[in-house]
Amino acid sequence: MRRTLDSMVAQTRKPTLWVIVDDGSTDETPRILAEYAGMHDWIHVVPKPDRGHRAVGPGVIEAFYAGLETVRAEDYDYLGKLDLDLDLPPRYFEILIQRMEDDPRIGTCSGKPYVKRGAELVSEKKSDDMSVGMTKLWRRTCFEAIGGLVREVMWDAIDCHKARQLGWRAISWDEPELRFEHLRPMGSSQTSIYTGKRRHGFGQYFMGTDPLYFAATAIYRSMEPPVILGGVSMLQGYFGAMLKGERRFDDPELRTFIRAYQRRTLRVGRARAMAEVEAERAHLFHGLTA
Description:
- By secondary structure, the protein is of the alpha/beta class.
- The chain has two domains: 2-182, Spore Coat Polysaccharide Biosynthesis Protein SpsA, Chain A (Alpha-Beta Complex); 193-281, no CATH class.
- 47% of the residues lie in helices and 16% in strands.
- The chain has twelve helices and ten strands.
- The protein has helices at residues 2-9, 29-39, 58-68, 92-102, 140-145, 155-165, 193-207, 211-221, 229-244, 252-268, 270-280, 282-289; strands spanning 18-23, 43-48, 78-82, 86-87, 106-110, 112-117, 120-123, 135-139, 169-172, 179-182.
- The strands form three sheets. Strands 3-8-5-9 form a four-stranded mixed β-sheet.
- Helix 10 packs across helix 11 (270-280).
- The longest helix has 17 residues, at 252-268.
- The radius of gyration is 19 Å and the shape is globular.
């Protein structure tokens, strides 16, 4: 947590306001947050009662909105969501905001997460057509246009797909000044990494991901630790939810859009599919901002 706090203090473009939600910490977190808030008037800590368990997905967004509800969002051009397990490079927000200023169609963006394995920093291999969930930046008008965030697992992909559906651009860049260290591996869980992988598979099913596309994704991810078994766990989560007839995200048009985009990605590659969809939907963005 101190590494995250220190990396934010060192930013060349600091937040106008950083609201940190402490949702029931029982360790030294409240004391450390009070220390930093006392030194920096742009840090505001919002305490929240302990829910009694870790709630990945809905719990994350519950905490996000507990913070957002303490401010007037309309007073800001950009909104961000940030986990307290990151080490950000100093020009991170300066560069992201400049790129959003240069391209009004960018609705949400981020850099790329890296995790330490031994002495080496290794990419978590997040795709370029998504801003990453652990540190997202939204243009406020885009955030409002997509209806905010869903309080469900896969919220951090649904927002990108919804933005793209409406004609915005969702993007992330893998460049030295935008690479950050993720201090807790993506897909990990308080139970085990396999639980996290199964949860991801369920989330993809919930979101409406195409089965063939997800199978290809799971095979690709099976080359990462835990090798093979991680991909198998993802498939268990997805197809287990399918066999049980679990509920899906209640936006049939968005689910159809997501599947069509994913199938196009399988046919022509992600970069081309993204460029084609952005070109096709440019008129929606211009109509939205007219």
